[in-house]
Amino acid sequence: MIFVNYKTYESGTGEKALSMSKMIEEVSQTSGVKIIPVVQALDIKEITSNVSIEVWSQKIDPVTPESVLEDGAIGTFLNHSENRFIDFETLSTAHDRTKEIGLKTLIFAKDIEELEKISSLRPDFISYEPLELIGSKDVSVATAKPEVISYAATISKNAGIPLIVGAGIHSSQDVKKCLELGAIGVAVASDIMNAVDPKKELLDLVEGFQ
Ligand code: G3P
To answer: Is the pLDDT of residue 62 over 90?
Structure first.
């Protein structure tokens, strides 16, 4: 599976977010690879009203997580590099609230130590994204951190929680490598959101699952 994180890219905002989501829906349906748009809170309602694939939120307000659920999101990222919690306890409380209302969760970790801790919260997915490689144009997590991904995969297997890997993913080879090392999917942003032809880029990433 592929999580496409729109972040605050212009290409993933407002009307462009809707066209991007329709393109993702088409590629997901034709390829059979599950692809989830992870969109800005303000765009969730419009997108979920117009596509039939799962749509996720980039974050929740820990006090009112119901709002994204009411708008039609199925799940949410937690502790992404752009929305990191101040400490584990705050993350844990927010995660409990999020699960309580029925949203799926993916929690990010910047390293192995954090990955072990977040696994104890039992989210639906755990994700390893080394902060220094996020947005990288040349070096991906797959090429720079294969041994860490393997270790993360062991944690994932022992915990029985699927692993998603991200940071600098740009090619079908990157995707293939992450899967070989034990991840079940990838999280990607800049490769798609900055692309001149996002569909072409997404089709390339999908190749990694073939
Ligand atoms: O959540 C995915 C994102 O943080 C990775 O960003 O630009 O390195 O694909 P990017």
So the answer is: no
Residue type, 208: G
**CATH number for the domain including 43?**
3.20.20.70
Q: Is 169 in the pocket of ligand 1 (CB under 6 A)?
A: yes
**Is the CB of residue 174 below 6 angstroms from any atom belonging to ligand 1?**
no
Q: How many domains does the chain contain in total? A: 1
- Host domain of residue 201: 2-207
CA 134 to ligand 1 centroid distance, Å: 5
pLDDT on residue 133: 98
Cβ–Cβ < 8 Å for 72, 44: yes
User: What's the alpha-carbon Rg for the chain, to the nearest Å?
Assistant: 16
Q: Is the CB of 134 under 6 A from ligand 1?
A: yes
pLDDT digits (tens, 9 = 90+) for 153-190: 999 999 999 999 999 999 999 999 999 999 999 999 99
